[in-house]
């Protein structure tokens, strides 16, 4: 073996040893349960959510944004939250030993009633600490989602639109149709009033209010007003929501 060949082989061996050291360091980080920026970014791209692991506990952050998509696919240029993604994820989070609490970041225009209520019922049924933070807006069916948690927060600039049930497409003009609308609306009202401090009559009066929106019936309320009405628990920011979650961890 020539001197040049020996030198090349030694360099290759050093590279292998270096790579092995890197792999061992990576394995140590994994054993510690740590996650880094690269892993966070990939989780966000894949599912719009991320799990962070710290000494204070492990929290999963899930975004509910755009339109709450139902049985019909949203338009291609519309951002949407898909219930077939969120529902199994919630079930997995509830059972996971690696997640201690869940933070929901809300900025939604509303959407499908059945899908929204289904997601809200799953969140309300979780035993782990859960918190919501309303950013921008949590309108229409986004309201049950905002109040379904153990503790709800809203930034001062947050907006929430309360309005009667709507339906697009062909509607049969018959008494039974309006009775169906009323029963559907009752499901929403009952869920909201069961999961927050707002009075049922007050919520209905806000829903049926006229004169506030130019082309619609209902009300738009903002962060501090939502707290005064009992719809949201607390005006707060991201750090407030995180600190509350950490305080609830066992």
UniProtKB/TrEMBL annotation:
Biased composition (Basic and acidic residues): 1-32
Region (Disordered): 1-39
Protein name (Swiss-Prot/TrEMBL): Translocation-enhancing protein TepA
Native source species: bioreactor metagenome
């Amino acid at each position: 073996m020539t001197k040049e060949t020996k030198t090349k082989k030694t360099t290759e061996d050093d590279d292998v040893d270096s790579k092995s050291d890197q792999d061992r360091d990576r394995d140590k980080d994994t054993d510690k349960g740590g996650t880094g920026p690269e892993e966070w970014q990939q989780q966000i791209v894949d599912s719009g959510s991320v799990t962070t692991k710290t000494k204070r506990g492990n929290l999963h952050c899930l975004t509910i944004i755009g339109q709450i998509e139902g049985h019909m696919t949203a338009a291609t240029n519309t951002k949407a939250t898909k219930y077939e993604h969120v529902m199994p994820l919630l079930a997995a989070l509830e059972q996971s030993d690696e997640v201690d609490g869940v933070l929901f970041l809300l900025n939604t225009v509303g959407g499908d009633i059945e899908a929204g209520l289904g997601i809200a019922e799953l969140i309300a049924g979780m035993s782990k600490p859960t918190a919501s933070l309303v950013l921008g807006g949590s309108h229409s069916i986004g309201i049950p989602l905002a109040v379904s948690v153990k503790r709800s927060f809203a930034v001062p600039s947050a907006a929430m639109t309360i309005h009667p049930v709507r339906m697009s497409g062909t509607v049969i003009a018959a008494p039974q149709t309006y009775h169906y609308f009323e029963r559907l609306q009752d499901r929403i009202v009952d869920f909201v009033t069961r999961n927050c401090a707002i009075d049922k009559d007050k919520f209905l009066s806000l829903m049926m209010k006229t004169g506030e929106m130019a082309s619609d019936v209902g009300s738009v309320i903002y962060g501090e007003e939502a707290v005064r009405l009992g719809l949201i628990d607390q005006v707060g920011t991201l750090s407030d929501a995180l600190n509350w979650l950490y305080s609830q961890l066992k």
